[in-house]
Specification:
Helix content of chain A: 10-25%
Helix content of chain B: over 70%
Number of helices of chain B: 12
Low-confidence stretches of chain B: none
Oligomer: heterodimer
Largest sheet of chain A: 11 strands, mixed
Mean pLDDT of chain B: 86
Radius of gyration of chain A: 26 Å
Distance between the termini of chain A: 34 Å
CATH superfamily of one domain in chain B: MetI-like
Number of strands of chain A: 21
Chain lengths: 565, 335
């Protein structure tokens, strides 16, 4: 009898296996490679993308963004809005409700106290929390009951989804981090390396800047997930080696951020072991134009509003610079499938994307020449245009990076064709993007005529991104050269749009304002957008469930990843 | 000899303190920012807070003294406690890395095994290969063996490891699929099968580095042998009727080894320095990779500590080389 039961159930199990939901841990092991190795698992202590993504395997926010940039409830039951009463009518409070029955990996229940604690942890004045911007304007976070949290803002907040949304501001366990507030935060090495989370995996061993070994979380809310019992996240090497290990040798299942030449990736993919996937977010490679005079002879006052630029303040020159560039060719050479030409500095999400500037997609050298001729810039004996003794000679700086140096060479040639002389300069990224006020080579000081880099914004709301170009954001000695308004653009109309957006709650109206700001910047040629850069990753043919997401962590849905049979 | 050793060791202390000051100042004055590699979406005021929390707000001399206190007093005390099993206050502040926020010394200890295994083994293999090659090349100067040896060592010298490394990966990992292209630092050797896996993943990096080391040392060995082979004492030894084997392997070799030993000893600190490029290529993630990642991330405490440890090892092995010199060559006396 007993034997029969066993046999029968075995047969039944066999018959059911293909249709039944996969069991937790039934697919063995998954290997992930990040060519930049994560340094910690606590995203609050490191703003780096690699740490955010590694941390997202373990720590989760209340809500996150899906692949289309829509918000999806994660630890919360639903997304609070003004319609469902979760956001107050005056836009100053938002009330989140946790899913009932959630458990930390150690088995203890997740409560609203943990949410409150996460806020306290990140906003402690001595903690140096890298994500504190997410909690801007939050005046208090209260636990109304075990599952309800009310966030109150000091001002009316049209987009109240900063705190606890996205991989940047996950919920950490109050019990584990209780003694790690403020200056003590970095000393809690054990907690920072092995945080207790709600995510599909738990850390079994963390080797900083090397490798993370993980195993499935026994207390994960979906009993059937994750499909993998263990996972390895290896770091180190370079993008080419990471791509090779997935696409050519098949040692790894997923490789992150393969910023490689298009032909190199195509060759790797031809080996047939895996697929290259790409998705677009808001990252735009752009040339910023300096509206102030960076001449070293001006001493302390160089690069400030006191001294306007000798020729870049002429809009005809700026427009000519943009007209001379062939963006399609730049994409083809530098990014392939991972890029597309962009005429906007705000390229996404769809509702914010302007179509008013698409004329820039076509290179028009003749029009550029005519524009300069008409404006009185006449070519001299050496072919360089000049007017009233001012020569169109540009210093063009960017960070050291193979693709950027290719772009510089091409653009220098195009600008040469329209009679503008260009001197190229590249600076190591850690200096260029560093904010050492003593260094003259930072992108904020901008002691050059034009500079090129890429920038984007977190999440889907462009409000703070677009306010980057308001007058008060201009870096200057008074602000210790801090600020995001590299061109030192200053327009009352623009500032008015920024102020209006800050008090507008309606999404359609916000989209109109954002577009208007984008168009103003584009049509005055304050910056020259070049390429909308996508994210490129690769996964092996046997790894299923991967959905590339540029709005949140790439590992956002790792719980759904599985082995294809 | 003992006097000499003691005198040199005592002299090493101010030297090392001076080196630590120079390293500290050089790194601190260099334009680098630990928050430079963070995404641009993080605003400047948050960056400023991060820098403050790293202790960068304090003046430079205070930071230097703090580092000295942490490195020369707190860390050795911690090690002592660990060995002796004491458990005192435990609230001592250690040198913390800015990137990982964990004690630098722990990071180094974690990285040592793979570096010693891969880089150390390649140094031993390289040396063991180089000595016989150098000896035979010199003894049979301009023979085909010498020509081939010269050719190979020139290749080893001049072809960089980032080329040989990637070439080996393409041939042996991608085409043939014999060896893994990514080194697994968490691999534990427990039985025969796991031992074979360890051997497999070490073959390529060790070969690449051994070729490079062997090229250098075999040239030294050859040159040194050639110097000695034409000396009068060699003719005397042959005239005494000694066997050729004894002449070469006892008389000539022993004398030729003196400068080679110095070169080999001075090369040992480099083993601890790891092999930055080879470690990157094969993802060995040892000390070399730790150093380069820290440099890129502006993680000054790690760079300072690592560079200082290298300086310490160089001073130490210089001393060892000098002492060995005296042991090997009776003509040299320090007292």
């Amino acid at each position: 009898m007993k034997l029969r039961t066993v046999l029968l159930s075995a047969v039944a199990a066999l018959a059911l296996a293909p249709v039944a939901q996969a069991e937790r841990g039934s697919d063995g092991h998954v290997n992930i490679i990040y060519w930049q190795a994560p340094s910690t698992m606590n995203p609050y202590l490191s703003g780096g993308t690699k740490e955010l993504e590694a941390g997202s395997l373990v720590l989760e926010p209340l809500a996150r963004y899906d692949q289309d940039g829509n918000m999806v409830p994660w630890l919360a039951e639903s997304i609070p809005t003004t319609e469902n009463g979760g956001v107050s009518a005056d836009l100053t409070t938002i009330t989140w409700k946790l899913k009932p029955g959630l458990k930390w990996a150690d088995g203890s229940p997740v409560t609203s106290k943990d949410v409150v604690f996460s806020w306290k942890y990140c906003t402690h004045p001595e903690g140096g929390c890298a994500q504190s911007e997410k909690y801007n304007d939050v005046s208090s976070v209260e636990a109304l009951d075990d599952l309800t949290v009310k966030v109150t803002f000091g001002i009316s907040k049209p987009f109240p989804y900063g705190p606890f949304v996205g991989a940047q501001s996950p919920i950490i366990q109050a019990a584990q981090f209780a003694d790690c507030l403020g200056a003590k935060a970095p000393e809690c090495t054990e907690a920072n390396f092995n945080p207790i989370g709600t995510g599909p995996f738990v850390v079994s061993e963390f080797r900083p800047n090397d490798v993370i070994s993980l195993k499935a979380n026994e207390n994960y809310r979906d009993p059937a997930k994750p499909a993998f019992a263990t996972a390895t996240l290896k770091g180190g090497g370079d993008a080419a080696a990471a791509g090779r290990s997935v696409l050519e040798t098949g040692e790894f299942d997923y490789a992150w951020n393969l910023q490689l030449a298009p032909d190199v990736l195509a060759n790797m993919q031809a080996a047939g072991k895996g697929k290259v996937i790409s998705a677009f977010g808001t990252l735009v490679e752009r040339i910023m134009i300096n509206l102030t005079n960076p001449d070293a002879a001006l001493g302390e006052e160089r690069g400030t509003k006191k001294h306007p630029h000798p020729f870049l303040t002429d809009m005809n020159v700026r427009k000519a610079l943009s007209l001379a560039i062939d963006r399609k060719l730049l994409v083809e050479i530098g990014y392939g499938d991972a890029g597309r030409p962009s005429c906007n500095v705000l390229p996404a999400p769809e509702i914010y994307k302007s179509t008013a500037n698409d004329g820039c997609l076509k290179q028009d050298v003749e029009a550029a020449k005519k524009l300069l001729d008409d404006a009185g810039w006449k070519a001299g004996a050496d072919g360089v245009r000049a007017k009233d003794g001012v020569r169109l000679s540009i210093l063009y700086q960017t960070s050291t990076n193979a693709v950027r140096q290719d772009f510089q060479a091409l653009i220098k040639q195009w600008w040469g064709e329209i009679g503008i002389e260009t001197e190229l300069r590249n600076i190591d990224a850690s200096v260029f993007f560093g904010s050492d006020p003593g260094s003259a080579d930072t992108f904020q000081k901008f002691f050059a005529d034009v500079e090129m880099y890429a920038n984007n914004f977190d999440g889907t709301d462009p409000e703070s991104y677009m306010s980057n170009w308001s007058c008060k954001q201009a870096p200057s000695p008074e602000t210790q050269w801090q600020g995001n308004n590299m061109p030192r653009y200053c327009s009352e109309e623009y500032d008015a749009l920024v102020a209006e957006m800050a008090k507008t709650g309606d999404l359609k109206e916000r989209a109109r304002l954002a577009k208007a700001m984008n168009d103003k910047l584009m049509q005055e040629y304050i910056m020259i957008p070049l390429v909308d850069r996508g994210r490129v990753s690769a996964h092996s043919n046997t790894l299923g469930g991967v959905v590339l997401n540029t709005w949140d962590s790439e590992l956002w849905n790792v719980a759904d990843w599985h082995r294809m049979k | 000899m003992l006097n000499f050793t003691i005198r040199r060791s005592v002299l090493a202390i101010p030297t090392l303190l001076f080196i630590s000051l120079i390293i500290f100042l050089l790194l601190d004055l260099a334009p680098s920012d630990p928050t430079a590699n963070l995404p641009l979406t993080i605003p400047p005021d948050v960056r400023e807070k991060i820098r403050e929390s790293l202790g960068l707000g304090q003046p430079i001399h205070i930071r230097y003294l703090l580092w000295c206190n942490q490195f020369f007093i707190n860390e050795p005390l911690n090690v002592l406690e660990h060995w002796l099993g004491w458990n005192s206050d435990g609230d001592r502040i250690r040198v913390l890395s800015w990137q990982t926020r964990s004690p630098v010394v722990d990071l180094i200890v974690e990285r040592l095994p793979q570096t010693l295994w891969v880089v150390g083994l390649s140094y031993i293999v390289g040396t063991l290969l180089a000595l016989p090659i150098g000896i035979i090349s010199a003894y049979r100067q301009y023979s085909w063996f010498d020509q081939i040896g010269t050719f190979i060592s020139m290749v080893g010298f001049s072809v960089p490891t980032f080329f040989t490394g990637v070439l080996m990966i393409v041939i042996f990992s991608v085409w043939l699929g014999w060896f893994p292209s990514i080194y697994d630092t968490t691999h534990q050797v427990t039985d025969m099968a796991s031992f074979m896996h360890q051997v497999k993943q070490m073959v390529m990096p060790v070969t690449v580095l051994a070729l490079f080391n062997a090229a250098q040392i075999s040239r030294f060995m050859r040159a040194s042998m050639l110097d000695n082979l034409n000396q009068d004492y060699v003719r005397t030894a042959r005239a005494k009727g000694l066997r050729e084997q004894t002449v070469v392997l006892v008389h000539v070799l022993r004398n030729s080894l003196i400068p080679v030993v110095t070169v080999v000893a001075l090369g040992v600190p480099q083993v601890f320095g790891g092999a930055i490029i080879t470690e990157q290529v094969f993802k060995v993630n040892g000390l070399g990779q730790l150093l380069i990642v820290s440099i890129q991330g502006g993680d000054l405490p790690v760079v300072q500590t690592l560079t200082f440890i290298f300086a310490l090892l160089i001073v130490l092995f210089n001393l060892i080389a000098d002492v060995l010199y005296g042991v090997l060559d009776p003509r040299i006396r320090y007292d």
